[in-house]
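Lab notebook page, bench 4
Experiment: in silico fold of construct C2
Operator: M.H.
Input chain length: 399 residues
Purpose: comparison with the prior construct
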Amino acid sequence: MAYWTVRDAAREWGISERLVQQLCSDARIDGARRFGRSWAIPEGAPKPEDPRRARRASGQPDDAAPVPELVPMPLLNTAFAPGGCLACVESIEDDDVRTVALAECHYFSGKADLAAGEAEPYLSSEDPALRLSACWIYGFASLTLGDIPSARRALAGVRDALEAADDTVPPQHRAVAAFMASGAAVLLHLPVPEAARELPALVPLLPRGLRLFALYLQAHHAYLQGDYGRCVGLVDAAFSVRGETYPIVDVYLHLVAVMGHMGLRQTEQAQRHLLAAWDLARPDDLIEPFGEHHGLLGGMLEAVIKPAWPDDFRRIIDITYRFSAGWRRIHNPATGEDVADNLTTTEFAACMLAARGWTNQEIAEHMGVSANTVKSFVSSALRKLGIRRRQDLGRFMLS
């Protein structure tokens, strides 16, 4: 018997390769046989009928229809061994899903220009998973590239998906829409949309990798509320249930744990989490998250990464400047806040700690510099910000 490949069947039936694979997995194509990671489909096989049409014809309600899986951010959602990121991407058979996963890989490794170019064609995709992924990747990549109008348009696509997820949408799909919208808001330190606030109740409906990243988002939100203990507790809970290693998600979890422990002044625990994140990130060059979180890590990058990995530290700081510049151009107007945009990264790190009540000596011991150097950093920042007292630093810092 002659067989089609998944690609052949997708072309013949006018559907995506991903849907063909799902139909095979659901045993809805007679004679389909699995070969390794792919499928062989009898040549000339008819396109499976939409089961909802059959139910309508027989008078059965549509609520019995199976809910198709919706999995945006395929790489974020995938477990793989550190160092296997590109191999993981290359193993994806569906061309479109593989391209989106490659865009993720490039974004998380600090290559915003490549990520934006790969994601852009999918901004208007009819496949909601591809479209949501593209909006998120292209939005944050454009922010890093300084293209704020494009960042706004792409991230608006995420909010539009949430607004369209009414009560007629399957709960699993509402969970994904809430996840994506909540993620965009939390990462930009913006108010979480009302419709996304049900995310904690919907987390169990998410695919496993996204479920873990949702715990990161909840931990980050707890940090922004000043609830550092809950922030750390959510990270501990995530690691206790995760099972396999999801390197990208795990890096974000470790970094938000650094934030929480620094808020609690637990520098040793914070350092352990930072080094754990660094060990996971280095094999695949997943350096972007460190630049995104720099201002929230309380000088930990200066204390730990800069002395041992100076070249990587310089790359992180380059990402920090570009990401933070775009971040502020969206965050500040939307919130009315004045997060500082004219400080060096070292001045900002020192002032974050000073705003929390750390003394110059405490900051100096943490960052590995002299107390006079810290005094110089803080004095320079006060002049640039046009203020006189350390107590006024808080409104120019991140939460």
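Observations: Residues 218-223+230-282 form one domain. Residues 54-60 have pLDDT under 50 and may be disordered.
Next step: discuss at group meeting.
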